[in-house]
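Help! Submission page says 'invalid entity' but I think these are all valid:
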Amino acid sequence: MDFAKYAAYRVTDFLADDDFLDGVLQPTAQTARFWSELAERYPAQRENLALATALVRGYRQQDTFTDPALQSELWQRISAEVGPATQATARPRAGRWPVLLRVAAAVVPLGVGSFAFWYSQDQQVRTAYGEIKTVHLPDGTQVVLNGNSALTYQRGWGHRTRQVWLRGEGFFKVTHLNQDTTKVQPGERFVVHCRGLNVEVLGTTFNVNDRPGRVNVGLVTGKIRLTTALPNQAPTALTLAPGDYVEYTAQRISPPRRLAHPEHLATWSQRQFAFTNGRLGDIMQTLQDAYGYQVTYAHPEAANLHIEGEINVAGVAALLETVSASLHVRIAQKGNHLVVN
Amino acid sequence: MSPPEETELLWRLFKRGDWEAYTKLYNQNTRLLLNYGHKFTRDRTLIEDAVHDLFIRLWTSRANLGTPLSVKNYLYKALRSILFRKLETRLRFTEMTEADPLGFEVSFDQVLIASEEESALQAKIKAAIGTLPARQQEIVYLRFYEGFSYPEIADIMDITVASTYKLLYKALHNVEVVFTATNGASGPLEK
């Protein structure tokens, strides 16, 4: 290789040079010697060489996307379609027609009509009791679904308003699209529909708990707007700031409460339970809603007992232990049934 | 056997209908293909569908495939065009007027950088790359992350080799502009 060629190279010239890049990406003893000798012969070029190398290495430190589960799921799909088992039943002849037929079956070219249908098709993710699942929406938004919950969205998602329908509980990390906060384009809005309540967001993390009888919404970061959307009613709207927490029951939004630890709202997504001055009734309700337990009280007033201070535990067993120890109650468990004495 | 030789052998076997070889090709390439797809769109369903279509098409038309210069090149090119068609179709139904349905974005959010010095450089790189339009981002990615040659890049992006030089220089020049702007009047890139 020729040293003189590189005497007047700028950083961009090095980056565009195949031999230089090769030396950085796949160094050999020989190439390493070349480049260090070049630096000795042309000390003025040392800085350019160093920066070009640093740029390549720095650029390569980028986020990578991997999803082994998706990869193996996809393989199941592929081998189910064209794998050895199907081949056996298809009995391929020497001619080309069977291959073409299989192609048509596997990859259906969508006409306009069927595409419109596909576009408006609902995607739904459900969780069983006690199951926690993360949903990735097409725009990058992540929703962690708690047990016994369902999230629905339209398949042809994205450039109109982003909308989802939630039953149960979800913790949302919404991809922020809004460029100009004074003018929100329709495609930038993100709306969560619950029973009677809509949560509209711009780019934000928040928790929505939609259970029979009430919907609770707590905001961790960002800004959201709540609107009630019942017919024959004047629409109410309320804007929340980080830390605000509201309850929606009997078709009315409660005045917002300030939470000292809004980040506790999402601890359930790590199978943690965090309560501040937790009321026993509320704690047991969580177990009922998301985990499917049945709860009965020997003395109904016990539901109003409060555990002073903060509790932060992982797992249902730890929670029950903490509750019974703090409140001096006995919680008997028979299968799915919890009895509070 | 060297990796490229092994891949060549796998390709030959797969073309003759060897299911094992085809499985190996899938296992060796899908992770990278998913990563590449993720630069164009964050819609996992779409990426999955595209990789699915690619491998189905590969298997069903294996008898008619030639021997590409590089298998990886071939797969990237094929995935890119499948993704393009899917994204373009979707756009047609949403009345978006962007000329180019193919966005391309590299992110640097999850990386933990040890030294402060490296961290400063990393921030500059992130800022500079962020200003590049989609096609420039893509060529930078194909060259510096995936290590494709100019002819391979031309094949993947469906442009002439001359255009790849021009496109890369444009990208590098734009990066240089951001670097000199943040370093003051005469930055190191200009020496």
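Support: the input was valid. A stray whitespace character was the problem, and the output above is from the cleaned input. The radius of gyration of chain A is 29 Å.
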